[in-house]
Amino acid sequence: SEWKDRTFTFKSPLEIPDDPTFKDYSPFYRIHSPIVIDNGSYRCRAGWAGETNPRLNFQNLVAKPRVKDGPQLVGGDIKLADLSKQLARSAFDGNVIFNFDHQEMILDHIFVHLGVDKDKIDHPILFTEPVCNPNYVRKNMSETFFECYGVPSVCYGIDALFSHYHHTAFMDDPPSDALIISSGFTSTHILPVLGNRLQASHIKRLSQGGATISSYGQRLIQTKYPAHRNAISLDRADQIKEEHVYVATNYAKEMESFKGKEADSKSVIFQLEFNLNPAAPVVSEEEEQRRQQARKEQGLKLKEAAAKRRLDQVSDKEDQISMLEEIKILKTTDPEKFKVELEEAGFTTIGQLTKEIAKLKSFVNKAVGAEVQPMEEAGFTTIGQLTKEIAKLKSFVNKAVGAEVQPMEE
After folding, report:
1. Which helix (H) or strand (E) holds 206?
2. pTM to 2 decimal places
Protein backbone atom coordinates (compact mmCIF):
# COMPACT_ATOMS: atom_id res chain seq x y z
CA SER A 1 0.00 0.00 0.00
CA GLU A 2 2.90 2.34 0.81
CA TRP A 3 4.43 1.90 -2.65
CA LYS A 4 1.05 1.93 -4.36
CA ASP A 5 0.53 5.51 -3.22
CA ARG A 6 3.83 6.47 -4.87
CA THR A 7 3.25 4.64 -8.16
CA PHE A 8 2.88 6.86 -11.21
CA THR A 9 1.03 5.47 -14.21
CA PHE A 10 1.65 7.13 -17.54
CA LYS A 11 -1.31 8.61 -19.35
CA SER A 12 -2.34 6.85 -22.50
CA PRO A 13 -2.25 8.93 -25.69
CA LEU A 14 -5.94 8.09 -26.09
CA GLU A 15 -6.68 9.85 -22.79
CA ILE A 16 -5.85 13.26 -24.27
CA PRO A 17 -9.24 14.99 -24.40
CA ASP A 18 -10.50 16.77 -27.48
CA ASP A 19 -10.44 20.56 -27.26
CA PRO A 20 -13.93 21.72 -26.18
CA THR A 21 -16.17 23.81 -28.43
CA PHE A 22 -18.09 26.53 -26.60
CA LYS A 23 -21.59 27.72 -27.53
CA ASP A 24 -21.92 30.87 -25.35
CA TYR A 25 -20.52 33.35 -27.88
CA SER A 26 -23.39 35.89 -27.97
CA PRO A 27 -22.62 37.72 -24.66
CA PHE A 28 -18.97 38.24 -25.66
CA TYR A 29 -19.97 39.44 -29.14
CA ARG A 30 -22.32 42.10 -27.77
CA ILE A 31 -19.58 43.72 -25.68
CA HIS A 32 -16.75 42.98 -28.19
CA SER A 33 -14.74 41.29 -25.46
CA PRO A 34 -11.01 40.99 -26.30
CA ILE A 35 -9.58 37.55 -27.09
CA VAL A 36 -6.35 36.68 -25.24
CA ILE A 37 -3.97 34.24 -26.98
CA ASP A 38 -0.84 33.05 -25.16
CA ASN A 39 0.92 31.58 -28.18
CA GLY A 40 3.71 29.48 -26.67
CA SER A 41 5.99 27.25 -28.69
CA TYR A 42 4.90 24.21 -26.61
CA ARG A 43 1.35 24.97 -25.52
CA CYS A 44 -1.17 27.52 -26.69
CA ARG A 45 -3.73 29.01 -24.31
CA ALA A 46 -6.67 31.12 -25.42
CA GLY A 47 -9.80 32.60 -23.90
CA TRP A 48 -11.82 35.72 -23.25
CA ALA A 49 -10.42 38.73 -21.36
CA GLY A 50 -11.92 39.02 -17.88
CA GLU A 51 -12.10 35.27 -17.23
CA THR A 52 -9.77 33.71 -14.68
CA ASN A 53 -8.64 30.68 -16.71
CA PRO A 54 -8.11 30.12 -20.43
CA ARG A 55 -10.87 28.19 -22.19
CA LEU A 56 -8.44 26.37 -24.48
CA ASN A 57 -5.10 24.86 -23.48
CA PHE A 58 -3.61 22.57 -26.10
CA GLN A 59 -0.24 21.44 -27.44
CA ASN A 60 0.77 23.87 -30.20
CA LEU A 61 1.02 21.36 -33.06
CA VAL A 62 -0.56 20.93 -36.47
CA ALA A 63 -0.95 17.46 -37.99
CA LYS A 64 -1.25 17.08 -41.74
CA PRO A 65 -2.39 13.68 -43.03
CA ARG A 66 0.02 11.42 -44.90
CA VAL A 67 -2.87 10.24 -47.07
CA LYS A 68 -4.64 12.38 -49.66
CA ASP A 69 -7.79 14.28 -48.58
CA GLY A 70 -7.28 13.40 -44.90
CA PRO A 71 -8.32 15.79 -42.11
CA GLN A 72 -5.93 18.45 -40.81
CA LEU A 73 -5.84 18.39 -37.00
CA VAL A 74 -4.70 20.86 -34.34
CA GLY A 75 -3.96 20.60 -30.64
CA GLY A 76 -5.98 18.14 -28.59
CA ASP A 77 -7.60 16.74 -31.73
CA ILE A 78 -4.26 15.05 -32.52
CA LYS A 79 -3.99 11.63 -30.96
CA LEU A 80 -0.40 10.47 -30.46
CA ALA A 81 -1.47 6.91 -31.23
CA ASP A 82 -2.40 7.99 -34.77
CA LEU A 83 0.83 9.86 -35.52
CA SER A 84 1.88 7.09 -37.93
CA LYS A 85 -0.91 8.31 -40.21
CA GLN A 86 -0.17 11.99 -39.62
CA LEU A 87 2.73 14.39 -39.90
CA ALA A 88 2.76 16.57 -36.77
CA ARG A 89 4.62 19.85 -37.08
CA SER A 90 5.04 23.03 -35.05
CA ALA A 91 4.65 26.52 -36.45
CA PHE A 92 7.79 27.51 -34.50
CA ASP A 93 11.51 27.38 -35.11
CA GLY A 94 12.83 27.61 -31.57
CA ASN A 95 10.49 30.18 -30.04
CA VAL A 96 9.90 32.21 -33.24
CA ILE A 97 7.03 31.59 -35.68
CA PHE A 98 8.27 30.60 -39.14
CA ASN A 99 5.39 28.61 -40.69
CA PHE A 100 2.51 31.06 -41.03
CA ASP A 101 0.24 28.55 -42.78
CA HIS A 102 0.38 26.36 -39.68
CA GLN A 103 -0.13 29.41 -37.46
CA GLU A 104 -3.24 30.35 -39.44
CA MET A 105 -4.62 26.83 -38.90
CA ILE A 106 -4.02 27.25 -35.16
CA LEU A 107 -5.88 30.57 -35.13
CA ASP A 108 -8.78 28.97 -37.05
CA HIS A 109 -8.85 26.24 -34.42
CA ILE A 110 -8.98 28.82 -31.60
CA PHE A 111 -11.77 30.93 -33.08
CA VAL A 112 -13.90 27.91 -34.03
CA HIS A 113 -13.62 26.34 -30.57
CA LEU A 114 -14.34 29.65 -28.84
CA GLY A 115 -17.62 29.59 -30.76
CA VAL A 116 -17.02 32.61 -33.01
CA ASP A 117 -19.59 32.23 -35.79
CA LYS A 118 -19.23 35.55 -37.63
CA ASP A 119 -17.61 36.31 -41.00
CA LYS A 120 -14.85 38.27 -39.28
CA ILE A 121 -13.33 38.39 -35.82
CA ASP A 122 -14.79 41.63 -34.46
CA HIS A 123 -12.78 41.50 -31.22
CA PRO A 124 -9.49 43.10 -30.14
CA ILE A 125 -6.67 40.54 -29.88
CA LEU A 126 -4.01 40.32 -27.15
CA PHE A 127 -1.22 38.14 -28.55
CA THR A 128 1.99 37.10 -26.79
CA GLU A 129 5.32 37.01 -28.59
CA PRO A 130 8.93 36.10 -27.62
CA VAL A 131 11.52 38.58 -26.45
CA CYS A 132 13.11 40.49 -29.37
CA ASN A 133 10.60 39.06 -31.84
CA PRO A 134 11.77 39.82 -35.43
CA ASN A 135 9.87 42.61 -37.20
CA TYR A 136 9.27 40.27 -40.16
CA VAL A 137 7.33 37.87 -37.94
CA ARG A 138 5.25 40.63 -36.36
CA LYS A 139 4.51 42.09 -39.80
CA ASN A 140 3.23 38.76 -41.11
CA MET A 141 1.14 38.17 -38.00
CA SER A 142 -0.39 41.64 -38.32
CA GLU A 143 -1.23 40.95 -41.98
CA THR A 144 -2.88 37.68 -40.93
CA PHE A 145 -4.97 39.33 -38.21
CA PHE A 146 -6.08 42.37 -40.20
CA GLU A 147 -6.41 40.99 -43.73
CA CYS A 148 -7.47 37.41 -43.05
CA TYR A 149 -9.61 37.84 -39.95
CA GLY A 150 -10.54 41.55 -40.05
CA VAL A 151 -9.78 42.18 -36.37
CA PRO A 152 -10.17 45.82 -35.21
CA SER A 153 -6.90 45.96 -33.22
CA VAL A 154 -3.99 43.83 -32.01
CA CYS A 155 -1.77 44.25 -28.95
CA TYR A 156 1.52 42.34 -28.77
CA GLY A 157 3.38 41.70 -25.53
CA ILE A 158 5.86 39.48 -23.68
CA ASP A 159 4.14 36.90 -21.48
CA ALA A 160 6.71 37.29 -18.67
CA LEU A 161 5.99 41.03 -18.38
CA PHE A 162 2.23 40.38 -18.37
CA SER A 163 2.80 37.91 -15.53
CA HIS A 164 4.94 40.43 -13.62
CA TYR A 165 2.23 43.05 -13.93
CA HIS A 166 -0.46 40.57 -12.83
CA HIS A 167 1.43 39.66 -9.65
CA THR A 168 2.41 43.20 -8.63
CA ALA A 169 -0.43 45.44 -9.85
CA PHE A 170 -2.66 44.79 -6.84
CA MET A 171 0.01 44.91 -4.13
CA ASP A 172 -0.25 47.63 -1.50
CA ASP A 173 3.37 48.60 -2.13
CA PRO A 174 4.40 47.09 -5.49
CA PRO A 175 8.18 46.96 -6.15
CA SER A 176 9.50 49.12 -8.97
CA ASP A 177 12.50 46.85 -9.56
CA ALA A 178 12.46 43.15 -10.42
CA LEU A 179 14.51 40.39 -12.01
CA ILE A 180 12.27 38.15 -14.11
CA ILE A 181 13.43 34.64 -15.07
CA SER A 182 11.22 33.45 -17.92
CA SER A 183 11.85 29.77 -18.66
CA GLY A 184 10.07 28.63 -21.82
CA PHE A 185 10.03 25.47 -23.90
CA THR A 186 13.19 26.13 -25.94
CA SER A 187 14.96 28.97 -24.12
CA THR A 188 15.18 30.98 -20.89
CA HIS A 189 15.29 34.80 -20.73
CA ILE A 190 16.54 37.00 -17.89
CA LEU A 191 14.57 40.28 -17.91
CA PRO A 192 15.71 43.10 -15.57
CA VAL A 193 13.08 45.71 -14.64
CA LEU A 194 14.25 48.99 -13.11
CA GLY A 195 11.89 51.81 -12.21
CA ASN A 196 8.95 49.85 -13.68
CA ARG A 197 10.67 49.81 -17.08
CA LEU A 198 12.22 46.85 -18.87
CA GLN A 199 15.96 47.29 -19.46
CA ALA A 200 15.98 45.80 -22.95
CA SER A 201 19.72 46.31 -23.47
CA HIS A 202 20.50 44.02 -20.51
CA ILE A 203 18.27 41.08 -21.43
CA LYS A 204 20.08 37.74 -21.45
CA ARG A 205 19.04 34.59 -23.32
CA LEU A 206 19.96 31.01 -22.43
CA SER A 207 19.33 28.29 -24.98
CA GLN A 208 17.96 25.93 -22.31
CA GLY A 209 14.28 25.34 -21.60
CA GLY A 210 11.66 22.75 -20.85
CA ALA A 211 12.52 20.75 -23.98
CA THR A 212 16.14 20.50 -22.79
CA ILE A 213 15.03 19.15 -19.40
CA SER A 214 12.72 16.56 -21.00
CA SER A 215 15.40 15.38 -23.43
CA TYR A 216 18.05 15.19 -20.69
CA GLY A 217 15.71 13.30 -18.35
CA GLN A 218 14.79 10.87 -21.13
CA ARG A 219 18.47 10.08 -21.83
CA LEU A 220 19.20 9.60 -18.10
CA ILE A 221 16.36 7.10 -17.64
CA GLN A 222 17.17 5.26 -20.87
CA THR A 223 20.82 4.96 -19.79
CA LYS A 224 19.88 3.61 -16.35
CA TYR A 225 17.24 1.22 -17.70
CA PRO A 226 18.44 0.15 -21.18
CA ALA A 227 15.90 -2.73 -21.26
CA HIS A 228 13.09 -0.14 -21.29
CA ARG A 229 14.77 2.23 -23.72
CA ASN A 230 11.94 2.16 -26.26
CA ALA A 231 9.26 2.53 -23.57
CA ILE A 232 10.70 5.84 -22.32
CA SER A 233 9.48 8.13 -25.09
CA LEU A 234 9.88 11.90 -25.11
CA ASP A 235 6.15 12.23 -24.36
CA ARG A 236 6.59 10.15 -21.20
CA ALA A 237 9.66 12.15 -20.23
CA ASP A 238 7.44 15.24 -20.49
CA GLN A 239 4.91 13.63 -18.15
CA ILE A 240 7.62 12.81 -15.61
CA LYS A 241 8.94 16.35 -15.76
CA GLU A 242 5.52 17.98 -15.41
CA GLU A 243 4.39 15.73 -12.53
CA HIS A 244 7.54 15.17 -10.46
CA VAL A 245 10.37 17.57 -11.33
CA TYR A 246 10.80 20.51 -8.94
CA VAL A 247 13.31 23.29 -8.28
CA ALA A 248 15.45 22.76 -5.17
CA THR A 249 15.84 25.93 -3.12
CA ASN A 250 18.97 24.44 -1.53
CA TYR A 251 20.57 21.96 -3.93
CA ALA A 252 23.31 20.69 -1.58
CA LYS A 253 20.84 20.06 1.26
CA GLU A 254 18.43 18.37 -1.15
CA MET A 255 21.14 15.97 -2.36
CA GLU A 256 22.07 15.10 1.27
CA SER A 257 18.46 14.22 2.02
CA PHE A 258 18.56 11.43 -0.57
CA LYS A 259 21.27 9.61 1.38
CA GLY A 260 19.02 8.80 4.34
CA LYS A 261 15.58 7.31 4.95
CA GLU A 262 13.95 10.41 3.52
CA ALA A 263 14.92 9.14 0.06
CA ASP A 264 12.17 6.47 0.21
CA SER A 265 9.49 9.08 0.76
CA LYS A 266 10.66 10.97 -2.31
CA SER A 267 11.01 7.93 -4.56
CA VAL A 268 8.41 7.26 -7.24
CA ILE A 269 7.67 4.06 -9.16
CA PHE A 270 6.85 4.49 -12.85
CA GLN A 271 4.46 1.84 -14.07
CA LEU A 272 5.02 0.62 -17.65
CA GLU A 273 2.78 -1.70 -19.64
CA PHE A 274 3.50 -5.38 -19.16
CA ASN A 275 2.39 -8.25 -21.36
CA LEU A 276 3.42 -11.74 -20.22
CA ASN A 277 2.78 -13.39 -23.60
CA PRO A 278 2.98 -10.77 -26.32
CA ALA A 279 1.25 -12.06 -29.42
CA ALA A 280 3.27 -11.78 -32.59
CA PRO A 281 1.40 -9.96 -35.35
CA VAL A 282 -0.03 -12.37 -37.90
CA VAL A 283 0.60 -11.38 -41.52
CA SER A 284 -1.20 -13.20 -44.30
CA GLU A 285 0.65 -14.53 -47.33
CA GLU A 286 -1.09 -12.04 -49.62
CA GLU A 287 -0.16 -9.16 -47.34
CA GLU A 288 3.48 -10.29 -47.22
CA GLN A 289 3.59 -10.49 -51.02
CA ARG A 290 2.06 -7.04 -51.27
CA ARG A 291 4.68 -5.64 -48.90
CA GLN A 292 7.51 -7.27 -50.82
CA GLN A 293 6.17 -5.87 -54.10
CA ALA A 294 5.83 -2.42 -52.54
CA ARG A 295 9.43 -2.57 -51.27
CA LYS A 296 10.63 -3.68 -54.71
CA GLU A 297 8.77 -0.83 -56.45
CA GLN A 298 10.11 1.67 -53.93
CA GLY A 299 13.66 0.41 -54.55
CA LEU A 300 13.25 0.81 -58.31
CA LYS A 301 11.92 4.34 -57.87
CA LEU A 302 14.91 5.25 -55.71
CA LYS A 303 17.32 3.77 -58.29
CA GLU A 304 15.64 5.70 -61.12
CA ALA A 305 15.75 8.94 -59.15
CA ALA A 306 19.44 8.40 -58.32
CA ALA A 307 20.25 7.63 -61.97
CA LYS A 308 18.44 10.76 -63.14
CA ARG A 309 20.30 12.92 -60.61
CA ARG A 310 23.59 11.35 -61.71
CA LEU A 311 22.89 12.03 -65.40
CA ASP A 312 21.94 15.64 -64.64
CA GLN A 313 25.15 16.12 -62.70
CA VAL A 314 27.24 14.55 -65.47
CA SER A 315 25.60 16.72 -68.11
CA ASP A 316 26.29 19.87 -66.06
CA LYS A 317 29.92 18.85 -65.50
CA GLU A 318 30.43 18.14 -69.21
CA ASP A 319 29.09 21.60 -70.07
CA GLN A 320 31.57 23.09 -67.59
CA ILE A 321 34.41 21.05 -69.13
CA SER A 322 33.53 22.31 -72.63
CA MET A 323 33.46 25.91 -71.43
CA LEU A 324 36.78 25.64 -69.61
CA GLU A 325 38.48 23.91 -72.55
CA GLU A 326 37.32 26.73 -74.84
CA ILE A 327 38.96 29.20 -72.46
CA LYS A 328 42.14 27.12 -72.48
CA ILE A 329 42.26 27.21 -76.32
CA LEU A 330 42.12 31.04 -76.20
CA LYS A 331 45.62 31.08 -74.66
CA THR A 332 47.10 30.35 -78.08
CA THR A 333 44.47 32.05 -80.30
CA ASP A 334 43.64 35.24 -78.34
CA PRO A 335 45.83 35.84 -75.26
CA GLU A 336 44.10 39.10 -74.28
CA LYS A 337 40.62 37.55 -74.31
CA PHE A 338 42.08 34.54 -72.51
CA LYS A 339 43.09 36.69 -69.54
CA VAL A 340 39.62 38.26 -69.31
CA GLU A 341 37.79 34.93 -69.59
CA LEU A 342 40.17 33.28 -67.12
CA GLU A 343 39.52 35.99 -64.54
CA GLU A 344 35.73 35.86 -65.05
CA ALA A 345 35.82 32.09 -64.56
CA GLY A 346 37.49 32.62 -61.15
CA PHE A 347 41.04 31.50 -61.97
CA THR A 348 44.34 33.35 -61.76
CA THR A 349 46.64 30.89 -63.56
CA ILE A 350 46.32 28.35 -66.34
CA GLY A 351 47.53 25.73 -63.86
CA GLN A 352 44.38 26.25 -61.77
CA LEU A 353 42.27 26.00 -64.93
CA THR A 354 43.93 22.74 -66.01
CA LYS A 355 43.56 21.28 -62.53
CA GLU A 356 39.84 22.13 -62.48
CA ILE A 357 39.31 20.50 -65.91
CA ALA A 358 41.07 17.33 -64.69
CA LYS A 359 38.94 17.33 -61.54
CA LEU A 360 35.70 17.64 -63.52
CA LYS A 361 36.73 14.88 -65.94
CA SER A 362 37.55 12.60 -63.00
CA PHE A 363 34.09 13.26 -61.54
CA VAL A 364 32.41 12.46 -64.87
CA ASN A 365 34.38 9.23 -65.29
CA LYS A 366 33.46 8.04 -61.78
CA ALA A 367 29.82 9.10 -62.13
CA VAL A 368 29.13 7.26 -65.36
CA GLY A 369 31.00 4.18 -64.09
CA ALA A 370 29.48 1.06 -65.61
CA GLU A 371 27.74 3.07 -68.35
CA VAL A 372 31.00 3.97 -70.09
CA GLN A 373 31.56 0.64 -71.82
CA PRO A 374 28.06 0.33 -73.40
CA MET A 375 28.27 3.98 -74.52
CA GLU A 376 31.62 3.42 -76.23
CA GLU A 377 30.28 0.31 -77.94
CA ALA A 378 27.40 2.42 -79.28
CA GLY A 379 29.88 4.97 -80.65
CA PHE A 380 29.49 7.72 -77.99
CA THR A 381 32.09 9.14 -75.64
CA THR A 382 29.99 11.54 -73.53
CA ILE A 383 26.50 11.70 -72.03
CA GLY A 384 25.91 14.88 -74.03
CA GLN A 385 26.47 13.07 -77.34
CA LEU A 386 24.07 10.31 -76.27
CA THR A 387 21.38 12.83 -75.28
CA LYS A 388 21.72 14.71 -78.60
CA GLU A 389 21.40 11.47 -80.58
CA ILE A 390 18.22 10.54 -78.69
CA ALA A 391 16.73 13.97 -79.43
CA LYS A 392 17.74 13.66 -83.11
CA LEU A 393 16.04 10.25 -83.44
CA LYS A 394 12.87 11.53 -81.77
CA SER A 395 12.77 14.48 -84.17
CA PHE A 396 13.13 12.14 -87.15
CA VAL A 397 10.26 9.94 -85.94
CA ASN A 398 8.00 12.97 -85.43
CA LYS A 399 8.71 14.23 -88.98
CA ALA A 400 8.26 10.76 -90.49
CA VAL A 401 4.79 10.27 -89.04
CA GLY A 402 3.84 13.92 -89.64
CA ALA A 403 1.99 13.41 -92.93
CA GLU A 404 0.02 10.49 -91.47
CA VAL A 405 -1.39 12.40 -88.50
CA GLN A 406 -4.04 14.33 -90.46
CA PRO A 407 -5.61 11.26 -92.18
CA MET A 408 -5.63 9.42 -88.84
CA GLU A 409 -7.51 12.27 -87.16
CA GLU A 410 -10.00 12.43 -90.04
Report:
1. strand 204-206
2. 0.61
